[in-house]
Amino acid sequence: MRAPLSWLRELAEIPVGVDELSRAFTDAGLHVELVEDPSAAIDGDVVVGRVLDFDEKLQSNGKLIRWCHVDVGAHNPPSEPGRGIICGAHNFVVGDLVAVALAGTTLPGGFKIAARQTYGHVSDGMICAEDELGLGTDHAGIMVLPPDSVIGSDALEVLGARDAIYDIDVTPDEGHCLSLRGLAREAAQVTGGSFTDPYATPVPAACDAGYPVVLDSPNCQIFCAVRVRGIDPHAPSPSWMTRRLKACGVRSISLTVDVTNYVMLESGQPLHGYDAQALRGPIVVRQAKDGERLTTLDQVERVLSVDDLLITDDSGPIGLAGVMGGLTTEMETTTTDVLIEAAWFAPATIGRTYRRHHLPSEASRRFERGVDQNVSFAAARRAAELMRDLGGGVIDDGYTVSGSVSPMPSQTLAAALPSVILGYDVPHQLVMDVLTASGVAVQAVEGGFQLTPPTWRRDLNDPYDYVEEVGRKLGFKNIPSRVPRAPSGRGLTRRQQAHRAVTVAVADLGLGETITLPFIGEPDLDKLALPAGDVRRHAVRLANPLSEAQPLMRTTLLPGLLAAVNRNASRSNADVAIFETGSVFIDNGAGAAISPAVDKRPSEAEVEALFAALPDQPRHLAAVLVGAFMPQRWNDAAQPATWVQAMGVADTVCASMGATPVRRAAALAPWHPGRCAEVGVVNGRGEFVGIGFAGELHPDVVKAWGLAAGACAVELDLDALLLVVDGLPAGAVEALSTHPAVKQDVALVVDAGVPASAVADALRAGAGELLESLSLFDVFTGAQLGEGKKSLAYSMVFRAPDRTLTEAQASAARDKAVAAASALGAVLRS
């Protein structure tokens, strides 16, 4: 919200300067982002001058130059009627008052004015355009000043350029500050000044003496209509009004439009003017019908829905309430008869409508945040009086008021609550004084205060709102800074410790952690080649998504990571290894969540219903590896990222939680069927519990996401892994044996479909307690083994805790292991 200081001072007594008011606003929660001083970049004198005469002459370069004599009053040369000035503009005539920068003045951009010889004359100054003074971007011609300006006086004062303009960030709960009236009230209160509301006239009782109006929707509670006839359509907007509109960032259009904008900025009440001669029958405020159409002032035909609030007459829709008027009743340059509308529309309705139609405006911004219901009639009357005074119109004696002002809710505030919440002593009388100055009706009761807010403060709903109001007006800087003391005996939960350990362990492998948005679309799941019945297609659909292309909550972390890899590839970063930990959201069929009222705390039953409606949200870890996992070095070739590294990530995750991973062959999209493994752990009952999958991605998936061939991925359910790990019995710590180990290798021929992990499990079971470690070091296939066969070579290390093993003892244990593996069809390779 932009607010000129001169306008604020006109509405309130403000006993401080520019900088002091800026600090006071900010201390009260109205952050001043910028204080503009249009004249700060001008060093010297810019004065009002009257054009006495000029001589036009076409120059050899094709320019038509005027040699002017300009009377600048006391700044004229001795015994001369004016100064001679060369000017290339042609939009002024003899007798016009103009802004003259005198010689010795420096204009914005470091442009210095000096008396110099040009076009055969000495130009002693410069007649200025708007952009040359830094007051705007218009460079089409010279600024012509109001005829009542005093010759030789400060032109910047006449132009309002000596006025400080505050640019204030108004938070959504401070809608009353989207007006000069509201800001002036705040400024007076926080600086110890005084304020008299120029819009204090309340909305009168319902009256139908003016233009007929029918309210047929609960989303419009008040509609005031005042008619002005006989307006001069050629009457210009006065310079003081256009200057203020411009300072607030509003473009001047015509007198009638400028008046409605001016009153909106001053009062906070958006107004709309209709060409009354174009209206057909009574005005009816109602909800739109699905498919109904309206051509708005921007000449766009809009298809409406039942959620849109309309202004209509017998011809149909003539306006989108609170957002934009219709083209058929637009005020034209020939309009002489204006019907002024000042209404109150439900904030949520206006917010939904302008977002749906992509039509934000100054009016909808104010309606969305809440407009003072009690200012509507006063604002309409003020606009009518300005049209009468400035445009020669006549105000109808009869007016229309439909609806009434809603009563404000009362609230009880405990006397001690402000001191408790703000953290310092606030005397009870000071609380009463602050709230009274804010317009709140305060009545002392036993143990506290009975409070009723004014109509412009519908944000004051509960005791804590009033505490915040007291804190704002006393200044948030007064709240003491205290560092909270951490309670002893607490720390990270087991789940937090486990997740942090996993993150650190995977990062130590060299993978980069990333965070992606939790939103996906159906095409993302299609590109993963997920079958129709896959649980990952049971996604939660958002009612109001950030993007229509991604209306679902993610059921897997892979789409976000694959998109990130694709973006890296498009920027020539072909070697990528990234991971993410985060929640996925699986629709459990509980249905949409309820929407409890926001004016009080939900009941226990409502809280239970809310939690019951939440989707399942397990925490996952996923990683994607593409290109080289280890770069090429002078002494070694590059190491590509393969399924081996993907499995290594899975192993690292399990190890960081103290679990031993178990893998078995699997086929699950989006992985390559022959190069995918299900990763799991064994629980306390000896059962395999799957926690995720790892391996190389399917070529079709790689192509769909635009990745390099051979891309690999892993995705694990961390919550499932933690559940199994916490259920396992605590392991015993064994002493290290000081006796030497015996190493033996064994090569077994098995069917190609037998998993290496199953053979390893059999060897461990058969070898008994003497087996210290077992590792697979070679896989071989060849014609000499026979079709459908493979050779698995394992290194076995045997060690006894209390003695030195002989080769015979180690061999006996090895033979038992081979015998156990024979149950899988394994035979020793000859």
Give a written overview of the molecule.
The protein has 830 residues and is an alpha+beta fold. The protein folds into six domains: 2-37 and 164-195, Phenylalanyl-tRNA Synthetase, Chain B, domain 1, CATH 3.30.56; 46-158, Nucleic acid-binding proteins (OB fold (Dihydrolipoamide Acetyltransferase, E2P), Beta Barrel); 207-403, Phenylalanyl-tRNA Synthetase, Chain B, domain 3 (3-Layer(bba) Sandwich); 411-478, 2-Layer Sandwich (Phenylalanyl-tRNA Synthetase, Chain B, domain 1); 494-592 and 604-727, Bira Bifunctional Protein, Domain 2 (BirA Bifunctional Protein, domain 2, 2-Layer Sandwich), CATH 3.30.930; 742-828, 2-Layer Sandwich (Alpha-Beta Plaits), CATH 3.30.70.380. The chain has 21 helices and 45 strands. The strands form 13 sheets. A seven-stranded mixed β-sheet has the order 31-34-35-41-40-39-38, sandwiched between helices. Strands 15, 17, 18, 25, 26 and 27 form a six-stranded antiparallel β-sheet that branches. Strand 4 and strand 5 form a beta hairpin. Helix 1 (5-11) packs across helix 4 (180-191), helix 6 runs antiparallel to helix 9 and helix 13 (494-508) runs antiparallel to helix 17 (643-656). The termini are far apart.
Secondary-structure map:
Blueprint: E1 2-4, H1 5-11, E2 12-13, H2 18-27, E3 31-36, E4 46-58, E5 64-71, E6 83-87, E7 97-101, E8 106-107, E9 111-112, E10 116-118, E11 121-123, E12 126-127, H3 155-158, E13 165-169, H4 180-191, E14 194-195, E15 207-208, E16 213-215, E17 220-229, H5 239-247, H6 255-267, E18 271-275, E19 283-287, E20 293-295, E21 301-303, E22 309-313, E23 316-320, E24 324-325, E25 338-345, H7 347-356, H8 362-369, H9 376-391, E26 394-395, E27 400-403, E28 411-414, H10 417-422, H11 428-437, E29 441-445, E30 448-452, H12 463-474, H13 494-508, E31 512-513, E32 519-520, H14 522-527, E33 552-553, H15 558-570, E34 576-583, H16 604-612, E35 619-626, E36 628-630, E37 639-640, H17 643-656, E38 662-665, E39 671-682, E40 688-697, H18 699-704, E41 712-717, H19 718-727, E42 742-751, H20 756-767, E43 771-780, E44 789-798, H21 807-821, E45 827-828
Parallel strand pairs: 16-19, 31-34
Antiparallel strand pairs: 1-13, 2-14, 3-13, 4-5, 4-7, 5-6, 7-12, 8-9, 10-11, 15-27, 17-25, 17-26, 17-27, 18-25, 19-22, 20-21, 22-23, 23-24, 28-30, 29-30, 32-33, 34-35, 35-41, 36-37, 38-39, 39-40, 40-41, 42-44, 42-45, 43-44
Helix pairs in contact: 1-4, 5-6, 6-9, 7-8, 13-17, 20-21
